[in-house]
Amino acid sequence: MFSPAAIAMAEKLGLQKGRANLEVFAATLESLAGTDSSIVAVTSDSRGSGKLGGFAKAFPKQLVEVGIAEQNLVGVTAGLAACGKKAFGVSPGCFLTARSLEQIKNDICYSDVPAALIGISSGVSYGALGTTHHSLHDLAVLRAINNLDVVVPADNFETREAIRAASQAKRPFFVRFGKAAMYGLHGEATSFEVGRAITVRDGTDLAFIATGETVIQALLAAGELEARHGLACRVISVHTIKPLDNEAIFQAGLECGAVITVEEHSIHGGLGEACASVLLQAGVSKPFKIVGIPDEETVTGAQADIFRHYGISMEGLSQTALNLLQSA
Amino acid sequence: MKDAELELKAIQLRKHLLQVIVSAGAGHTGGGLSCMDILNVLYNRVMKVSPETFSDPDRDRYVQSKGHCVEALYVVLSDRGFFPAGDLETVCHYQSHYVGHPTRHIPGVEMNTGALGHGLPICVGMALAAKMDDSPNRVFTLLGDGELAEGSNWEAGLAAAHYGLDNLVAILDHNTLQITGHTRDVMGTEPVVEKWQAFGWDVREVNGHDYAELTAALTDPAVPGRPTFVVANTVKGKGVPFMENVAKWHHGVPSDSELVEATAELDAALAQRLEGVE
Ligand SMILES: Cc1ncc(C[n+]2csc(CCOP(=O)(O)OP(=O)(O)O)c2C)c(N)n1
Ligand SMILES: [Mg+2]
């Protein structure tokens, strides 16, 4: 996931390597279930992939297995939630948000039940398993569905807070993350609020507006751009894709010389186009670049290979920033 | 090819499968081993398809619905001459066309699969097209038993019977395991024989490692107007004793020493077979 130079930069920035967000999700859900017997996890032969083996052992009555049947998983989650359970449907993001999209749209969002859906190993976490196993469309389709909060945590802290928020939510809630170990981006004193982006680093030469597991790559690039070129870049973690923090995006566009958005998602319909929409409608026009997975058959490789290939890396983002500033 | 020759080939295919998975650093070992004999019989005895005839519209079609066991398909296709075995050294590597699930970039692969529950509906479409075109070809798919929990299989099951698709054969790799453990504990699907009979299919139950039984089930004429469902009772991890019937080998990748041990087991089986043949 990180080149030797990127690891050196992370050390220079004082970042600590944490666990996979997936593991933090499982630990958080398990600890919540200990004090709240209404929490039910619903799995589709996915408890191993979701690291819920411990949960299943500790709370066997709070886990419903539906087998390899993701449409059923979402329908069952909706029914449980409609009857007072704090239901978490847990399945790989690729199947959850493609195969079960109609159940998400109708059974959860339209019926307005406070269910939580957890897309595990999202984006290109399953790298070389190919397009069937990638979710690069999920933010686009879920953004277009009314009545759903969409959260993409960047590190262990954001993941824990997102899962706590999901357990408290009175409305449909979707969270997606990957399975690679993440560096910590925030101190414990940071405040996490759904719908409120977190500025990880300040600056006005350029803003990186990033989400999920690409935020760290943007932060490393910002470190590199400062060290090598004396540039001060802002890095914003947009952990909530919906409702979007329009204000933070607007301010970044207004105050910074250029804007680069970064996401582990198709360049169509995700964070980048959402930011473009905010800025353009507010009359803010700055050099602007969307970095994500282009509209082509995704290259074969592990998540790190794919990130590197498409420039979602310290090196790639630094270069994109220099090019953008030069063209400005 | 005689049964004995196919059985010898199966041992080589299993060895190759393990090598590919180790070199890829990922793969589906248990389910690949359980379906290897089925694929061997299909490609080397039953199906009318070859590298030379792959563009013939009347070729038999095979769609691997349990796409995760792509490594087994890869080694069978390469053995059959669809592409050089050396290609498989790149499986799952950066920029390779050999992804961890079947894609049509690979010679011999009919459809992209990997999300479970897609093969049977696709094959219903292919079998319908053959009927429309008066084509003599047959259409085959391979399903996992855990996969049967996907509702799309049952939707396609209705359609295949409704349209009387006697040119369609679904084969169930009935190894009784999926990722989490035993299928009966995860989501029971039994009794599969009676269920598919009730759906209007001609159901044939065989030992999925017995070449004579597999051949009969896959070549005996179809009941006119009925699709064929072959319940192939298999052993997940078949051929490598320490992998047999062990859930963790679903996607376990052998370590170097496990590869040596597994290869030794298969070599011993090969030696024993060769003695038997002479
Ligand atoms: C729609 C979908 N859901 C989940 C998965 C993940 N997955 C891959 S293999 C597998 C278990 C398959 O078990 P089974 O069908 O019994 O296959 P086999 O035992 O032959 O390997 C699962 C859940 C998938 N590939 N597609
Ligand atoms: Mg099985």
Structure in words:
The complex is a heterodimer of chains A (328) and B (278). Chain A has helices at 4-12, 21-35, 53-58, 70-82, 93-98, 101-110, 138-143, 156-168, 215-229, 246-255, 271-281, 303-309, 314-327; strands spanning 17-20, 39-43, 63-65, 86-92, 116-120, 149-151, 173-176, 181-183, 198-201, 206-210, 233-237, 240-242, 259-266, 288-293. With 328 residues, chain A is α/β, with parallel strands linked by helices. Chain A has a 7-stranded mixed beta sheet with strand order 3-2-4-5-7-6-12, with helices on both faces. In chain A, strands 9-11-10-13-14 form a 5-stranded mixed beta sheet, sandwiched between helices. A two-stranded antiparallel sheet of chain A has the order 1-8. In chain A, α4 (70-82) packs parallel to α6 and α9 (215-229) crosses α13. Chain A is globular and about 60 Å long. A 5-stranded parallel beta sheet of chain B has the order 1-2-3-5-4, sandwiched between helices. Chain A binds chain B through residues 43, 45-49, 65-69, 71-72, 94-95, 98-99, 128-133, 299-302, 305, 309, and chain B through 24, 26, 67, 92-101, 103, 112-117, 146-147, 149-151, 178-180, 183, 186-187, 189. Bound molecules: thiamine diphosphate and magnesium ion. Residues 144-146, 175, 177-178 of chain B line the site of magnesium ion. Thiamine diphosphate sits between chains B (28, 31, 34, 66, 68-69, 114-117, 144-147, 173, 175, 177-179, 236, 250) and A (45, 68, 70, 95, 99).
